[in-house]
Amino acid sequence: xxxxxxxxxxxxxxxxxxxxxxxxxxxxxxxxxxxxxxxxxxxxxxxxxxxxxxxxxxxxxxxxxxxxxxxxxxxxxxxxxxxxxxxxxxxxxxxxxxxxxxxxxxxxxxxxxxxxxxxxxxxxxxxxxxxxxxxxxxxxxxxxxxxxxxxxxxxxxxxxxxxxxxxxxxxxxxxxxxxxxxxxxxxxxxxxxxxxxxxxxxxxxxxxxxxxxxxxxxxxxxxxxxxxxxxxxxxxxxxxxxxxxxxxxxxxxxxxxxxxxxxxxxxxxxxxxxxxxxxxxxxxxxxxxxxxxxxxxxxxxxxxxxxxxxxxxxxxxxxxxxxxxxxxxxxxxxxxxxxxxxxxxxxxxxxxxxxxxxxxxxxxxxxxxxxxxxxxx
Amino acid sequence: xxxxxxxxxxxxxxxxxxxxxxxxxxxxxxxxxxxxxxxxxxxxxxxxxxxxxxxxxxxxxxxxxxxxxxxxxxxxxxxxxxxxxxxxxxxxxxxxxxxxxxxxxxxxxxxxxxxxxxxxxxxxxxxxxxxxxxxxxxxxxxxxxxxxxxxxxxxxxxxxxxxxxxxxxxxxxxxxxxxxxxxxxxxxxxxxxxxxxxxxxxxxxxxxxxxxxxxxxxxxxxxxxxxxxxxxxxxxxxxxxxxxxxxxxxxxxxxxxxxxxxxxxxxxxxxxxxxxxxxxxxxxxxxxxxxxxxxxxxxxxxxxxxxxxxxxxxxxxxxxxxxxxxxxxxxxxxxxxxxxxxxxxxxxxxxxxxxxxxxxxxxxxxxxxxxxxxxxxxxxxxx
Lengths: 377, 383
Hints:
heterodimer; A: 377 residues; alpha+beta; Rossmann fold; CATH 2.40.50.140; 2 domains; 6-stranded mixed β-sheet; 6-stranded antiparallel β-barrel; 10 helices; B: 383 residues; alpha/beta; Transcription Regulator spoIIAA; 4-stranded mixed β-sheet; 6 strands; 72% helix; elongated
């Protein structure tokens, strides 16, 4: 079951919630819509489900127009962030409801409904809770009941709106893994919305990063993490240092102060350098390159992070495991091993430039550093 | 981070004179983190240079300058300008730009006093309210149409209607309302008879109190009181129930299961109330008459037998039917308004409360307006 989203736009008053969204979800794929709140991801999901109507554009299921079809014929399973279970019904009836109220011709016989509901409750490992009411269940259990209810109508498409958003971190992780298994088992085309990048990267076959009603990038988790196509994606996926700088005659200089950081090919002018904290190395100080000061060191579980001030700019650094941990106030040398340069003014679609680090270890930089250090060398 | 520990004195240091001007050297990191020290330094320098005349600030020594630093520098310049010419030297173009921006921003923008035109404001408010009411009315009418279509479709396949839901709502809106409706109607009957007897006794027409109580209760007050109580009891409950489901996204969940919320939520409630309200009104009228009879006996010594005989002669059956004929219409209005407001709930729980209040007000308003229209209609038919 493929989903084709073509040119969907939606406005709420003067606010453009979605602007010309085009996306294709392949059969059996698990796709994550990832973005901050207000990026339009939930609106898009609700339009796919038929809970909201688009101002323009169409949604095709298996090449078939759906926008003016009754939700019943769409056969879409929807899981809500806050479960949305029917509170006055038992777990069994919640799951069975979608089948029980079908018109007589399409309604399976009672015994078959009961059998199917119990099979689904077994699948979500909650068969023993069939007679309970939703308010007697924990959050994780409720969400699994909601999933069973969504699956009861034998959906062709499963849509999940921040399914783990209201759960605590541990349950969330467990349920995430479980959902991944379930998806592999059932193979239903699924789209889920999340603002948690870790969740999206771990769970999805493909990630759609959204911002302000537009799609920023679509790709596998590895692609979007390793080669973000916009600064927004860089910042949204994982921690990153955003450094204002400018490129002059092949070298990258800090915007404030003009300290050289490294080299860059084929660009000149103001740019923004993105560096992941684990792509920065702290080395023994080197007087010719200017020293950086360790301002703050804190350990979070296995990870040690440091804030290092270099030429008036703060860099967040993740220290390698097992390495020496510098003391606060210690002088070090900052070495940027990898990064990406986004020219300040660029055409949409123009690719970012790679950042060329100074040759590691050696005191001689990979590119000529120009007058600033040449005199000292 | 840095700077916070730096003493205030380190930021501005007197550096002798240049010609007639006193020279101040600015140093250190003029940034947000150092604001405490900066503002002290500025105050101190301004106080120390009182009566100095021309001042020159040498700013080469500033290591870092952010917006806060620039604002402080601008503040210092303004303080000293009151005393004599001030020159700030040694800023690179970027920092100079920042300082210029800070100096420009320092003067407060003129705030226009809003022009008060109370009469125009009143007219504007009335106009907006009228338009809002028009929108609301059209919306409600659209909803009525939608329910009518669903009702028509369901009438063709009555098996789709869920009998258990209708019975459940009849119990909630009808049976459970018996005590309060009964008591209030009884008391109204007592009050009517008592007040009527007081007036009629002056003309020696005590027995006509039966006519008064009979006609007013059977024709108007019985059904009107019941409708108002039910609007407050059940109309608000409909809004609250459906509204809570809406907040909880249960209504959305129904849609995704392919169910029509109007069919599942609205129809059973409306049908239940349309069936229950006439019964409730009949019961209310009976209780009202009983109250009237009790008061008549107490005040006028009219026995129950006399009361009933007089009632038979004074009030034709048609009067009661005219009264009860209104009940299903009122019931439909109360249920429709209650469900409409409930489905209009969006987002947060506080809109449930607001719309519940509104649903009661609107349905009582509509019931009384309709009652007046019915009076005109029946009068023109000569009933």
